[in-house]
Structure formats: C-alpha cells, structure tokens
Amino acid sequence: MEPNLNNELENAMPETDELIHETEVSEIVKAETDEVGATSKEGMLTEDETPYRPIGQTVRFTYMIRMKDQLGFLARYAFGGLNGLAFWLVLGLLIVRFAYGWKTDVASTKAMLVFGAFILIVLMPGNLFIRAFTQCKLAKMNNLYATYEISDAGIYVTQETEHQLFEWNAITKVKQNKNVIYLYVYKNSAFICPKDILGDGDWDTLQTIVAKNYKAK
After folding, report:
1. What are the structural domain ranges in the chain?
2. What tens digit of pLDDT does each residue of 133-147 get?
C-alpha cells in the first residue's frame, strides 16, 4: 500500500486507509547525508542530497495498487496480530452464546447478539472492502503508478518526477507469504511486493536481498 511523493508520509497507526503502498509515499525528509546509503534521519535519502545508486543485486518493478493486494493488506491488519486475536475472541464468544443461550435469552438479549454478529461478520469486512475499492479506484483514476528499485541500498521509489530512498534501517518489519512480501515502515503501513508482478526470478532475488539487509527490530 502505490506511493505518491507529493504528500507527507502518513502515519497509519490510528487508521488504516492512508497507506504508503496505496497512493502516498511522503514529502521528502530533509536530512544531512554523510555517504551513499547513510542519512541522519529515518534512513531516508532525498533528491537534494547524494544521488541514489543501487548496490549489489537489484529488483526493479512498476506497480499500481490492486484490489486483491490492498484488501489482503487491510485484512491482515484487521484480522491478524492483537487486533485479530480480539476479533476472533469476541466472535467465538458470540457463537458460543448463540449455541447455548439462544433458546433461553430474552428478546432484547437476542437483538444485541444479532447486532454484534452483524458488526463483526458484515460491517467490518464490508468496511475493508469499501476502503480497498475506493483506494484502488482513486489510484486508477489518477494513474498512480510507482516504480520500485530494491537493492542493498534500500527501497528506491519513483513516481513521475519525484523519488525517495528508504534505507533498510527505515524498515520496521518484514512479513511474507507464498504470494507477497510486505516491507513495513510503520505499524500498518508497508510496501507490497507481489510475486505475480515480480516473477519467479525476481521473487527469489528479492527474498535474498531482504534476508541479507533486513535486521529485525
């Protein structure tokens, strides 16, 4: 969740609909650079400083946010980790109450149970779908393609005439499954690297680059 370098990088910790990989990457951070790949703030190199040069193996791809990727990312945040634990716990309790208390519950209690189930089963997934759909529609309308070049130097993002380098020390977390690699820069803001966009060769190369450069925090 992609990047648009015209706006300031959104910290998505309070909410999930402003994500780096969708439409925004940030206003470039001003930081003094001592050498290539080393900056004094958040590992971000700007166009006013030392020009970016890839180091070692490099994977390069152009990408626009897609519905399946965005929906998968939002669902991962909503239904995984501590958020997911709370969701499944509450849903489990509702199911148990439906199974063992429905026949004896009064009408008001039944109404509350139905309302709770509606929120968890319909409203929450529906809200994620609407967010993903809206973000993808806006990206398509504005032709928001971004090019990513990932090497030992970091993740170099280019959109139209603007660009930004995120060094590896700016990556806070890496998660992957068989179809996608997420490179997080905040709790729920990440660059998405889909396998079907990269192809098998670049997918393997990217895993090698990530394993070499990312240090778990």
Report:
1. 1-65+144-217, 71-137
2. 988 888 888 778 889
